[in-house]
Specification:
The complex is a heterodimer of chains A (about 180) and B (about 650). Chain A is an alpha/beta fold and about 180 residues long. Chain A contains 5 helices and 7 strands; from the N terminus they run αβββαβαβαββα. In chain B, strand 3 and strand 4 form a beta hairpin. Helices cover about 65% and strands about 10% of the residues of chain B. Among the domains of chain B are: about 160 residues, no CATH class; about 110 residues, no CATH class; about 100 residues, no CATH class. In chain B, the strands form 2 sheets. In chain B, strands 2, 3, 4, 5, 6 and 7 form a 6-stranded antiparallel beta sheet that branches. A 4-stranded antiparallel beta sheet of chain B has the order 1-10-9-8. The relative contact order of chain B is 0.08. By secondary structure, chain B is an alpha+beta fold. The chains are: A alpha/beta (about 180), B alpha+beta (about 650).
Chain lengths: ~180, ~650
């Protein structure tokens, strides 16, 4: 082997490490500006309409069915939550703020006890225009809900455009939800 | 007050570590005896400073000082003392402090036991370690400070994650970290050798014990972690190909390759550049595994929530360490010339083959682990790579290693004949064939292949030892006398191989596991794996910081007590599995849930050979320690013997 080829051969590990380092750098930068989330779980509902369901109302509010969100007048959110879930408590102020801005939010209480639910809503406010109860959890399975809270963005044609698993934060609203609202307004 | 002292000690440690780095690396060029002595002294004070910082944090944990954010977030007064201490390294900031403590401890060990090294090499080794330590201590001090105060302090802490309240957590991370960090010594030796531009047989002899001891700890750490996940997570699995598990497996694979090829450097003065590259790669993979996985880039169950800012700092440190060392390698390694030559059939070739396959497995695991984030980056697709990929790619690469492991140790150096060696191994081949036929007869071909492979490795290692002591060719007492004087390295190597064979047996046996999920009412029973499992009773039982529901299950006369624990502070329920083992089989029961209709949802498992998986790991580590006690490697032994000889003369 010529000395030059030997030198090139010995530089291969450095080149590989540099490429790997560069890739990690790009990933970390994207994580910082919220354009990449390694924990994001792709939802099978994206680009589709939610599967058929009819949920009874909860806490004295009107329930809803898939036909009610087939062509909403404005883009809207469907928020899965439960009174027993701590992250749901965390995101409650964010939902309140979004509702105050006029974004329609419909809620689905997942496997919840009516008394606890009433107390939860009394303490944290009701950002929801309608509230369905999925007591059996079957609708959640059909939607592919991973856990509560989970939030779906539905456009004016009734198609799911975005799903967020976990508590909504101000960062997520700004980086992900606001652009969607502009795009599908 | 004490946390501030700890914080101050940490700041001192940064300064001392950087001083150790600069003086250690550049001191030998000054040609001044005082400069050569400075690095060991700095290593000692550097260790002392980190030790004080660590003790301060432990103290805060023991007295439950909730003004320290780290303690408030990850401990509580209801947690038993042992978990208040082990909880210190159960979170991100504390675990990095532990990492630095172990790194300083390794430096201290080199300073204390490196008396037989040339003073300039020892100084440079300590210098490299000092620089690494300085970098990570700076990280701890600036962006990951475990001593941050909290005001107003909460009345009680948030508590230790229930799943971490287990004896396994007390031992697994420190042991694993010692393995990871220990490879920094081999790394520092490689860098020092590249700086000096000289690698010879003596270098191979010096670096090997350090690599070996780290390997022992890494092996035990991985075995402990696997065992811990087996009994705490309640899934009955021992290896999930999770990114963090893979991150510990990667340095193990390259570290195993390093151990084997350092022998070649020592005996035959060849494969030098490759050995240096493996030393760099092993520690680089340890670093990447410990830190980058924690930056949140990879989706893992071991989530240490760390901010991306910390990730960038860590990436810069990794870039300096790994990039710098590989740059040095690219510049200096091409001049390292091999002196020994060897034939295609020889011990050297067998060790090269071992290296090729171990590194191929490492490459596959590395690719599989990093493919999801990189695929997202390059092609914008979401995907996950899971156990099916790893099982299908790793097992075919492991098979040739298993075959070669039996043959390799019996081959002679330089040039060997394969046929006589294979003739000596007829017994191992026969045992493997019998095991295969016996198991495959019941249509378990994969298990049969695995069990036969394990038996082959174990019997051939025994044949190796048997041949060395001339078993059955000289009287038994004579063989025993030979065994006592046999080099410990030979016994250690055989034990290491036997341990690997035992682990292979365990993994193969686990493919025969049977399991069942049933809902039983008290008094009902079910059949599984030839046993009758009866749910006798469900009742409450008290616990220190949890309440629990216990199911009493009788399995052919044996009573198991799996429980569901409800940790009141965190509102988390864990399933505490009940495992009964006889050494060759586990009976494993989990109380999964209490369904609305009453009774208990149970997950019942029978795991043949499961204990062998971890037992084999311990035998491997034991083999390493036996090998370390070889007088050739015993630190300072030749010098003492020479002194003794001189005294006699």
């Amino acid at each position: 082997m010529s000395p030059w080829r030997r030198r090139l051969l010995f530089a291969i590990p450095l080149a590989l490490a540099a490429a790997g380092g560069e890739a990690f750098y790009v990933i970390l930068r994207r994580m910082q500006n919220n354009s990449y989330d390694p924990h994001a779980l792709p939802s099978p509902l994206i680009g589709k309409r939610p599967p058929a369901f009819t949920l009874p109302g909860a806490n004295g509010m009107q329930g809803f069915a898939n036909t009610d969100i087939a062509a909403p007048p404005r883009p809207m959110l469907v928020n899965w939550f439960a009174s027993w879930c701590a992250p749901c408590l965390q995101e409650a102020p964010i939902l309140q703020a979004l509702a105050a801005q006029g974004l329609p939010i419909w809620g689905i209480a997942y496997q919840d006890d009516p008394a606890n639910l009433a107390q939860f809503l009394a303490q944290n406010g009701t950002p929801y225009q309608r509230l369905g109860a999925d007591a059996s959890g079957l609708t959640a399975i059909n939607w592919g809900v991973y856990g509560v809270p989970e939030t779906y963005f539905i456009d004016k044609t009734g198609i799911v455009r975005w799903r967020y698993a976990g508590a909504l934060t101000q960062d997520v609203v700004e980086a992900q939800l606001t652009p969607l609202l502009r795009q599908y307004a | 007050m004490i946390p501030e002292l700890g914080h101050f000690a940490l700041a001192c440690a940064v300064a001392l570590a950087i001083a150790q780095g600069v003086v250690g690396i550049f001191g030998p060029s000054l040609r001044d005896a005082r400069a050569l002595r400075a690095a060991p002294a700095l290593a000692f004070s550097h260790f002392l400073a980190i030790g004080l910082a660590f003790l301060a944090l432990v103290w805060a944990g023991v007295v439950s000082d909730f003004t320290v954010e780290n303690i408030a977030d990850f401990s509580s007064s209801a947690v038993p003392l042992v978990y208040r201490i082990s909880g210190i390294w159960g979170n991100h900031d504390g675990s990095i402090l532990l990492w630095c403590l172990i790194l300083a401890l390794c430096g201290l060990a080199v300073a204390l036991f490196g008396g037989n090294l040339p003073a300039s090499l020892r100084s440079r080794v300590l210098g490299v370690m000092g620089l690494i330590s300085g970098g990570f201590l700076l990280f701890t001090l600036t962006v990951s400070d475990p001593f941050t105060r909290l005001w107003p302090p909460p009345l009680d802490g948030a508590g230790v994650n229930p799943i971490l309240q287990d004896p396994g957590l007390a031992f697994h991370p420190p042991v694993l970290y010692t393995g990871y960090v220990g490879f920094s010594v081999a790394f520092a030796f490689a860098i020092a050798a590249l700086i000096e531009g000289r690698i010879d047989a003596a270098w191979g002899r010096w670096v090997r014990p350090w690599a070996l001891i780290s390997w022992c700890f890494l092996t035990s750490g991985i075995a402990l972690g696997s065992w811990w996940s087996y009994y705490t997570l309640g899934w009955g699995g021992y290896w999930f190909w999770d990114p963090v598990e893979n991150a510990s497996l990667l340095p193990w694979l390259t570290g195993t390759a390093l151990l084997h090829c350092a022998i070649v450097v020592e005996k035959r003065e060849t494969l030098k550049a490759w050995t240096v590259l493996l030393a760099i790669a092993t520690f680089s993979l340890s670093l990447t595994g410990t830190f980058l996985v924690r930056s949140g880039v990879l989706n893992s169950v071991h989530s240490f929530a760390a901010a991306p800012d910390q990730g960038l700092f860590i990436l810069a440190l990794l870039g300096l360490t790994i990039g710098g060392s590989l740059l040095l390698f690219a510049i200096r390694a091409p001049v390292l010339a091999a002196t020994g030559i060897y034939a295609p059939i020889s011990r050297e070739s067998a060790l090269v083959l071992n290296n090729v396959f171990l590194c191929a497995i490492a490459a596959v695991v590395f690719t599989g682990t990093l493919y999801p984030p990189f695929a997202n980056l390059l092609f914008g697709i979401q995907l996950s790579v899971g156990a099916p990929f790893f099982n299908q790619t790793v097992l075919p690469l492991a098979a040739p290693i298993i075959v070669a492991m039996g043959v390799g140790p019996l081959l002679a150096w330089k040039r060997a004949d394969l046929l006589p060696v294979l003739q000596r191994l007829w017994l191992a081949g026969a045992v493997a064939a019998i095991v295969f036929l016996a198991v495959a007869a019941s249509r378990h071909v994969i298990a049969g292949v695995g069990l036969a492979g394990g038996a082959w490795v174990m019997v051939s290692a025994l044949i190796d030892i048997g041949g060395r002591v001339r078993l059955f060719r000289v009287p038994l007492g004579n063989s025993l006398a030979r065994f006592v004087t046999l080099p410990r390295a030979a016994i250690g190597a055989a034990l290491g191989h036997i341990g690997f064979g035992v682990t292979v047996l365990g993994i193969a046996g686990m493919t025969l596991a049977v399991q069942k999920v049933v809902i039983l009412q008290p008094g009902q029973s079910t059949e599984l794996g030839g046993y009758t499992w009866t749910l006798q009773d469900i009742h409450d039982a008290p616990g220190p910081n949890y309440t629990q529901r216990v199911a009493d299950i009788s399995v052919d006369g044996l009573i198991l007590h799996p429980s569901r624990r409800n940790f009141t502070a965190q509102k988390v329920t864990t399933n505490d599995a009940a495992i009964h083992t006889n050494g060759f089989q586990d009976i494993y029961a989990v109380f999964a849930d209490e369904p609305a209709g009453g009774g208990a949802e149970l997950r019942l498992n029978r795991h043949p050979m499961a204990p062998e998986i971890w037992f084999g790991g311990l035998i491997m580590a034991l083999g390493g320690f036996v090998s370390l006690s070889d007088r050739r490697l015993r630190v300072g032994a030749p010098a003492r013997r020479k002194a003794a000889e001189a005294a006699v003369a």
